[in-house]
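Researcher: Structure for this, please.
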Amino acid sequence: MSVGFWDYISLGRPQWRGQTSILKAAFFLIFGTPDMHTRLRNSYVLNQIEQLELPRQSRVLEGGCGRAISLFWLARHHPDWQLTGVELDPLLARSARRAAERGHFSNVTIVEGDILGLEDRQTYDLIISIDVLEHIQDDVGLLRQFRQALKPGGYLVLHVPRRHQEMWRWLPVFHRHGVNRYTREESTAGGFHKVVIEGHVRDEYTAEELRQVVEEAGFRVMDLRETIGRWGEISFELNNLLWPWPFLRYLLALLTYPIAAPIGYLDIRQQPSRGNSLLITAMRY
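Model: Predicted structure, token format:
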């Protein structure tokens, strides 16, 4: 089984139940996740998972699950699996938990917390993490925690962005596109306080660097490939044409959606000869 066209279009749709805004709920219900890059990277990971030989009643952990896009897809396609997502961002964690509860995803558990505090031992058949490792200062340390949490013979599937100096861009404005530290105001019972979200702590990864950190953590690498090729990059850029101005970007994203979505699907249906991200699959032995 792989991510089909309608699977791709509907990725993120279960999140409509997790929204507190009617407009956001309607958007997720109609379009799924608004971000094309999220669709692309989750689709690549899901396609890879579907190629693995996993037990019928697998236990799966996603470190840094965000809106739990992949977990909800897996929950529908593998109802016998037990899926756990850990997310540091409280707003995303609460949104994913509401979506799981209101959507009656009984096999999905969302934990609000730091994945660096993982204490499980030989618990999971599969651990996935999607565009998280580049945010972690001690990346090898986190991978060692993942290894301890996996059963012997369990799988690790990681997706990370490629070193940005090596990335291919379509439009010149995206040559200065990056991910940095930022703050956001979050409402609480006592008013508002600022939440600091960390951006990339390193210049992403080359393929060889990714292989090295995974092997240093004690894994055996089974597969390492590039993802998000030219079609995927074009889809991403169409979706983010006005990225310096968030409000205008969202309006334009709606207008470009009919073009950006199918173009992105073309990307996951082929193996890019050169991609802007990396996907690695490893095993605990």
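Researcher: Any notable elements?
Model: The radius of gyration is 18 Å. Residues 1 and 50 are 6 Å apart (CA to CA).
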